[in-house]
Design goal:
Low-confidence stretches: none
Order of helices and strands: EEEEEEEEEEE
Distance between the termini: 37 Å
Mean pLDDT: 96
Largest sheet: 7 strands, mixed
Number of strands: 11
Length: about 120
């Protein structure tokens, strides 16, 4: 499975960005796709997850109400719409996919496939 992430950039606080993650290859059996973020010297942090069918979605408390995860099954693409961005949202954002997970997909160690990361910078 290959994941191609895109859509990062520089935005002012209060602005919006939409990240995309296109999956290709042998996607059969993928159960969940998620977004994580990471800053230098810090642990990778769960942002949001969505089941392969799109029926279940979960969010970190820090982004709930501001971010929306969605998917387009025809395009095998997952999106992260980020609104009301804050400087603390600044990070490299990674999309990830896995065939096996626990909880709601919040444990990065359970993911087998990762995108290359896309930088999101929110200025104050």
């Amino acid at each position: 499975v290959q994941l191609q992430a895109s859509g990062g950039g520089l935005v002012q606080a209060g602005g919006s960005l939409r990240l995309s993650c296109a999956a290709s290859g042998r996607t059969f059996g993928i159960q969940v796709m998620s977004w994580f973020r990471q800053n230098p010297g810090k642990e990778r942090e769960f942002v949001a997850s969505i089941s392969w069918s799109g029926g279940s979605r979960y969010y970190a408390d820090s982004v709930k109400g501001r971010f929306t995860i969605s998917r387009d099954n025809a395009k095998n693409t997952v999106y992260l719409q980020m609104n009301s961005l804050k400087p603390e949202d600044t990070a490299v954002y990674y999309c990830a996919a896995t065939r096996h997970y626990s909880g709601y997909g919040q444990y990065w160690i359970e993911y087998d496939y990762w995108g290359q990361g896309t930088q999101v910078t929110v200025s104050s």
